[in-house]
Amino acid sequence: MTIKDIKKRLKKFFLYLFAACLSAGMMISIYIYFPQSLESLDNRIRDFLFIVRGEEPQSGQVVIIDIDEKSLSKLGQWPWSRNKVAQMLENLAVSEAAVIGFDIVFAEYDNSSPHKVLKELNIQAENIPNYDEIFANIVVNTPTILGYQFQLEDEEYIVTKPPEIPASYIEKGVARDDNGKLIGEDYILNAKGTILNIPILQDNAYSSGFFNNVPDPSGIIRSVPLVIRYEGQLFPSLALEIVRASSGIERVFVHYNENGVEGISIGDFDIPTDRHGRAIVNFRGKEKTFKYLSAVDIYNNDFNKEDIAGKIVLVGTSAAGLLDLRATPFESVFPGVEVHANLIDNILTEDFITKPSGVDTINLMNILAVSILVTFFVTYTLFWFNPVIGISFILGEGYLAYYSLFTEGIVLNIIFPLFAILLAVINTTLMDYFFEIKKEEAIKRKFASKVSKEVMDSLLKNIDEGGFDAMDKEITIMFSDVRGFTNISEGMPNARALIDFLNMYMTPMTNIIIEEKGTVDKYIGDAIMAYWNAPGNIENHQDKALTATIRQIEHLVPLNKTFKEQGLPYVDIGIGLNTGVATVGEMGSEQRSDYTCIGDAINLGARLESLCKSYGARIIISEFLKKGLKNTYQMRNLDFVTVKGQTHPVEIFEVYSFGELEGRLKEEIDLFNEAVALYRTSNFVKALAIFKEVNTWEDKKNLKIYDTYISRCEHYIAEPPLDFNGVFVHTTKG
């Protein structure tokens, strides 16, 4: 490899590296400055990964008591009287449930309570059952965590009373001023008001937790806030408080880093969160992945106590009419209570999904890496392989995201690397077109300078089907040569001037050949060798070849006028044409080869061009070419000869132009043909008389042919041949 080659490769390498970095920089800029622009698509792809993973086993430590359609049909419409809820709660406590959490808020007093009914009627209500008190007495004596809801928007008649919790929530790594107020941005969700349980319940419960599930902009629950700030204090979610209560921990730590919240610690549990204190839910599967027990069965005490003993019990609803249905990655209708069940199970098994603070750096490096890798894979492989590379990298990114999500528990951005892959494939393909395919176009243009577009396209189309392989095929061959070229070259001031002169002549001649579907085989000094009907088939190739030849002769008139104006020599040419079977194909050495043709038909074509000088003709064709002509041309039967190097005689013809013979030329050719017929039958005396007569014409078309035949006739009259067959044997090339 030469230094020049190395420089070219390095130039290409750095050019494509720059392009890769440019496309990566575009995606990185969007990622940094417009992170939400593709978030919805990213989430959708991640939802698909959940579906691909399918359901996975849960710990079995969480049970859901479902206020389902069956329960509503048996116990009546919701809300039930509090004595029924109390009975259900008591049965759970007796069954030794570890913790009981309500995904329900009892914000109103029980209107069905006898105590309340009589009181409203101004009737003495002493010793009359108060269902709210009955329920409160059960709550206070059981491990019950009540649920409530924060109001996140300002509304009319908003309640502002904060709930009480029996634990301390300590924020670590966050700056505060002397008044205890946060310094800088507060990343945690702030509430405006509360929807609490009635005081008799709220005050008697061991603790409570909010059950706000905040969907993302697409309306799907993917993460749940673990803490919400209200009036400067942190309050736990229902799931977080259930885990804390079941662990007996009284101090919960919320950890911060420079990006916001990093995680929450409850004893031995370290729960990773996003910067806003939200936990991404690692959903176990579709609806009812967890153990469900009907609420009416709990009320009737008709259940297996082992299903409850030592378990965390959540009371909620799957009934459509109670409007606690959510959309999750697995399905669009999912009980809200099971969202809490999934989150509790994630914490208990420490099977978390998280976006760590350094994940942005990982995502940016991933975007850069795939942009560079895809660019160079596309650059240094075959063009048709580009889609395979793109799809392979997309599948690879999908697997990376899948592995990271479900094995390492890290949420990587998916959509930006995928777009980076597509952008890299498109950019590199376009660059390949402008830099690599342009080279191919240059080669085509170079090739097109020798052959017609149709021939070139045929070769390129069939290159894999043996388009260049050697084969025997009928072709029409053409040789042309400049008369007196030695004198012309000697008269030129230098080699550069000679080359420029030749180019001025060769260019229009070559263009004419190509326009008539011919292929220029080679330039031999001032000579041109061309052929028709190879490698692709050319209809009426004899006519096209002869048409190209006549056009070349005709073009000499304006060309010589130009030469004269520029003080350049006059040009005259002779052209020989033959049709025959030749071997055509790629020939040469392994290091260098050419597409050419060889055979007797080629040799005869070359000899016919040489004979132009002997016969004073510009165009000589063989009888084999004449047989294939479909059009009409002005020509004369020139001679019946055996050329040097061949043994079989061949008729040759001189061609002048297109169309029928007419006028003075027809008269001349008729007399000439008559004389030739006499000559070939050995009637040399009569033939000589006609040849001499026409030779006196000042406007005769051929100035030399008559002298040739007159000389032959006089020779044969003086020395009559013993066995004359009309064939003249040429012992020289011309």
Give the helix/strand class: alpha/beta
Oligomer: single chain
Euclidean distance between termini CA atoms: 49 Å
How much helix, percentage-wise, in residues?
40-55%
Summed up, what is this model?
With 734 residues, the protein is an alpha/beta fold. It folds into 4 domains: 3-37 and 358-446, no CATH class; 63-349, no CATH class; 452-660, Nucleotide cyclase, GGDEF domain (Alpha-Beta Plaits); 661-734, no CATH class.
How does this model look, in words?
With 734 residues, the chain is an alpha/beta fold. Helix content is 44%, strand content 20%. Helix 1 packs antiparallel against helix 11 (359-379), helix 4 runs parallel beside helix 6 (131-140) and helix 16 packs antiparallel against helix 17 (541-565). The longest helix is centred in the middle third of the chain and has 34 residues, at 415-448. It is rod-shaped.
Give the secondary structure arrangement, pairings included.
Elements: H1 3-33, H2 39-53, E1 62-66, H3 69-75, H4 82-94, E2 99-102, H5 114-120, H6 131-140, E3 144-151, E4 168-172, E5 193-195, H7 199-202, E6 207-210, E7 223-225, E8 227-230, E9 233-236, H8 238-247, E10 251-257, E11 260-266, E12 269-272, E13 278-280, E14 291-294, H9 295-299, E15 312-316, E16 325-326, E17 334-335, H10 336-349, H11 359-379, H12 386-408, H13 415-448, H14 453-461, E18 471-482, H15 485-490, H16 495-515, E19 519-524, E20 527-532, H17 541-565, E21 573-588, E22 593-598, H18 600-615, E23 619-622, H19 623-627, E24 633-642, E25 650-658, H20 663-680, H21 684-695, H22 705-718, E26 728-729
Helix pairs in contact: 1-11, 1-13, 4-6, 8-10, 11-12, 11-13, 12-13, 16-17, 20-21, 21-22
